[in-house]
Every structure is written in C-alpha cells, then in structure tokens.
Amino acid sequence: MTIDVTQLVKDWLDNLLPNNGVALVAAGGADLTVDSKENRQTSHEPRLEIVLNHAATADQATTADTATTANTISGVLPTNKGGTGLSAPGAVGNVLRSNGVNWTSAPLVGSDFPGLANSFIQNQNTATPQSANFNINGNGTANIFNAATQFNLGGSRVFSVNGGNVSANGVGAVPN
C-alpha cells in the first residue's frame, strides 16, 4: 500500500497544520490487517520516504554561481532578514540601539541607563564644560584637582583665588 502524504508533510513544515501523525483505519466497518514491525510474526521496519521535488526553485531562493557570491551581501540587509537595515556602520564611538521599530547608530546618552540618568557625570574632552552637581563619599586619591573658584571642606571655603592671590581661610576664624 502506498499513501501520498506529500501535501500533509508540506502543511506540517509550513505550520499550516499540527503534526498529529497519520492513522490508518478501515472504512465502512471492514477489517484491516497491517503487517508491521509491531506484528509478532514478521518484522518490517517502518519507512517514510521523502522526495523533494521543488529543489530547482528552493522556495524562491536566488541563484549563486560560486561559493563567493553565495556569501556576499550587496545593499542593505533588512531587519526581517537578520540585519540592521543601516547602510553604514555609524560614527566612531556610536552604539547600535533599537527604538522598537528600527535600528539607529548614535552616541550613548543618559537615557540609555534608565534610573541612572542623574547618577553619573560624563567625561567630555570638549571646550564646553559640563554643568553638574555631585557628591562623593569615602576616601580616595587624585593626582590633580582643578577648581575654578574655591575649595570647600565640610561646606566651608578653605582655599580660594582672589585677583591672582591665594587665600587660605581657617574655618570659623575668617568669614567667608
């Protein structure tokens, strides 16, 4: 007996139908005897032969003449094919980020760290200094610390520069 299950298998592979197997039943109350490996008197191995007859089209694949062209992508690889959809890698130092729909290439910003946007100061090597207020607790060492107007200890000014002159103030001894 030969049963063509080609369309059924295609539907399984395309997720059009669940793969619940194949059942052979007798029609109209007739008796059905199947000689199979479960039969105690004989031992036939079950067999399913699958013949792919659409290899020439391979489900709309394009032709590659050589292994080199098979591994070459030209143009932009879209996101639905596993790419970023971007035509260029972006500037040095940029990161790849998703906005939920598309990919972009841009520098890191504070909002890239949810909940931490006001918890750090970004070091910038530009002419325009960054304005920030911050507190540091604990002990540490710094090679050079540059303050534009004054140094405070415990909230009181102890060193400052006035007109090119350095002032050292004693806490509580000199009004600041």
Q: What percent of residues are in strands?
A: 5-15%
Strand order of the largest sheet: 3-4-5
Sheet with most strands: 3 strands, antiparallel
**Span from first to last CA?**
105 Å
Q: In angstroms, what is the radius of gyration?
A: 38 Å
By helix and strand content, what is the structural category?
mainly beta
Envelope shape: elongated
Q: What is the number of E strands? A: 5
Individual helix count: 2
What's the helix-strand series?
HHEEEEE
Helical fraction equals under 10%
Describe this protein's structure.
The protein has 176 residues and is mostly beta strands. The chain has a domain at 79-108. Helices cover 7% and strands 13% of the residues. The strands form 2 sheets. It has a 3-stranded antiparallel sheet with strand order 3-4-5, with no helix packed on it. Strand 3 and strand 4 (156-162) form a beta hairpin. The radius of gyration is 38 Å and the shape is elongated. The termini are far apart.
